[in-house]
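Summary for the lay section of the report: proteins are chains of building blocks that fold into shapes. Here we show the chain for Mechanosensitive ion channel protein and then a coded description of the shape we predicted for it.
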Amino acid sequence: MQYLMDLYHASSTELVLLFVMLVSLIPVIFLIKRLIFIPVKNYLTRHHYDDYERIKKYPIFRYLLHTLLALYFVCWGKIFHSTAFKAHVLLGIKDTIVILYTGISVTMLLLTLIDAFADLYHNRIKAVTKNAPLSLYFQILKIIVIVIAAMVTISYILNISLSTFLTSLGAAAALLTFVFKDTVLGLLASLQLTTQEIINIGDWVRIGAIEGTVEKITISVVTIRNFDQSISTVPTYSILNSNVTNYRGISESGARRVKRVFNINMATINFCDATILKALKKSPYISKDVIDKITLDKEEKDLTNIKLFKLYIQEYLKNNPAVYTEGFTFLVRQLEPTINGLPIEIYIFVKEVNLVGYENIQDNISEHFISILPEFKLKIFQNVGVV
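The coded shape description reads as follows.
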């Protein structure tokens, strides 16, 4: 009832001002579009066509228009205050609406600009920052903008200073932390993951039963593309409590481990005689120089075919250009005999980190050694009793 009385007693001057404000809104919108938006769009189309085409999907001009209109209403609010507007209830409602409209418009404009800038930034230097979680950083920036805008808007609506509002907010910090627990935990976890470089975009990782390449890191989840091209998502804060294996060191070092075991049938292990050595020297698969080198200073009576085979493996791998002989572990050794034969282990690092090339090198090495075994009168152990 009081609201109607205030409206009824409003002076004719104030009603005229209200009418002028509403009527002049249409030409103001027209002028903004004609004098600002169209020239800016034309300039971007002529000089920055690719960038403009990329950001055109973001409603920047729409929120810019709302922001300028909010400033327009703020100016008219000053005029109404200067005329001692009699309808105080209407004046209070108007102020609240204008503050909310201004806060929302400015916030949405800033968030849209951040999205557009993030898109342009990532597109221009994606080759340089391909491992940097840019989406996470921009997401954090957007949260900061939203929090600041909300605090400023609420403090204006309640007509209290920002410091007083922050003091009151501190008292409710425990409640807010509980309500936004997942967001807070995700924010802290994502910052810890990236600043400590636990994982980065593009890393090959294993988290529990999930293994694949990290595609996206956000406040809430980490997106991983599995090797079967399926997508897995892991809550960001849960990663810190999980066993994470990151294979980034493989690509950074330029080396990948090969660990293979050949189980030799122990019934075929014997001392080498002159016949075996001569046969090896005549073999088209084994270099005579290699045989001469590995038998140099060796007592033939102490030289077994398994020892000769192990020495041959070492010389073969040392002369393989795909294998690191220095700087990384290079080991050929016998393991403890088992019921499945005498294990000969190869523990080396190769220069190929790409999966396909790496597997091909492993296969070539294994196939060569298995194929050359008969030249040493050795056989791979096979359990014929197992079907």
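Put simply, here is one thing we learned. The beta strands are 204-207, 210-217, 221-226, 231-235, 244-246, 256-264, 323-324, 331-334, 342-350.
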